[in-house]
Each structure stands twice: as C-alpha cells, then as structure tokens.
Design goal:
Largest sheet: 7 strands, antiparallel
CATH topology: Protein Transport Mog1p, Chain A
Distance between the termini: 9 Å
Order of helices and strands: HEEEEEHEEEEHHE
CATH architecture: 3-Layer(aba) Sandwich
Helix content: 10-25%
Number of strands: 10
Strand order of the largest sheet: 3-4-5-9-8-7-6
CATH class: Alpha Beta
Radius of gyration: 16 Å
Structural class: alpha+beta
C-alpha cells in the first residue's frame, strides 16, 4: 500500500510539473528512508527533446543525450550525515562549491570521465536528503585523452538539467 501511494504521489507531481511547464519533460525520483520508512522525498528533473530517460527506477534516473554524447545519472539519498563524502571530495583538486536549482552543494571531477555533484536538499529529524548527479560521456568507448570533460560538463543542456531540479519535500506517512 505504501509503495502504491508513493508511486501515485510521484505520478501526480509529474503531471503537475508537465502542466506548469507547458509540456516540458521530466523524470521523478522518490526515495523512502531506509531507517524510517514513514518518510520519503521526491524530486523531479526536467529535460529537453534530444535527451531521453533510461533505466529510471523509483530512487534513481539516468538521462542520456546521444547526439551531444552525455549522460546524467541521479540518485536521491537519505542519510544521517554525509560528512565523509564531503571530506573526501574536498581533497580533490577539482572540488568546488556549487549551487543548482537554489540548492547548495559541491562538485568535483570524480575520475577521468565523470563529474560528481552533490546537492543538499533538506533535513528532518536526524536525516538529511541529498541528490547526487554524475555527469559523464554517453559513449562506453571513451578516450580520456581526447575527451574534454569540462566542455562536456559545461554544455547548456547539461547545465539546464542540473538547474531543473524541483524538490517536492519530505512526506510523512504512517506505516
């Protein structure tokens, strides 16, 4: 019953996003807190024609644009403190603080072919809600010597996707 309500809520939010944005496309991601299954959080992420969702689950989504050779994977995450992620990220040369869709976070070049972005969305009780995004080339046959990762990351379509995040908040439901 709880999963049905979560899916129903996500569908309603997706329809309202499409209605408000004049037909824009979006994926919805909902995460139920592992330690307190009465809490869930939902985000929607918009995208334009040419980009398509792939492997969308309730708590993760991937958007792929084959023509512009990028993919953006999203994971919504509840935790009682991700200080270890932030501490690890701060040690990277490419670490910087960012703001997307009004949410503070950080980013760094995770490896030769991928950027990690972490946005802090909310907190409730002892739990924080984070959205992780990983931006990478779509091609599995990437040549890290010739791929300009910074140019790929800074593409207008990638930046628009990161700036389209709409957080719906934490929902409390009874078990």
């Amino acid at each position: 019953m709880k999963k049905f309500l979560t899916v129903l809520l996500a569908g309603i939010m997706l329809l309202s996003l499409v209605a408000c944005d004049g037909g824009g496309k979006a994926v919805t991601i909902t995460q139920v807190c592992d330690d307190d299954d009465t809490m869930s959080a939902t985000v929607t992420v918009g995208y334009k024609d040419g980009t398509t969702p792939s492997e969308t689950n309730s708590d993760e989504a991937e958007l792929i644009n084959e023509e512009k050779d990028f993919s953006v994977e999203f994971y919504l995450y509840f935790d009682n403190g991700l200080d270890y992620f932030v501490d690890d990220a701060k040690e990277k040369k490419t670490y910087k603080e960012v703001k997307y869709s009004g949410f503070d976070g950080y980013m760094y070049q995770y490896d030769d072919y991928e950027y990690e972005i972490c946005l802090y969305l909310d907190e409730k009780d002892d739990y924080d809600v984070y959205l992780f995004a990983y931006v990478a080339p779509n091609s599995e046959l990437i040549d890290t010597e010739t791929t300009d990762m910074e140019a790929l990351f800074n593409q207008e379509d990638v930046q628009n996707i990161l700036n389209s995040v709409k957080y719906e908040g934490i929902v409390n439901s009874s078990k």
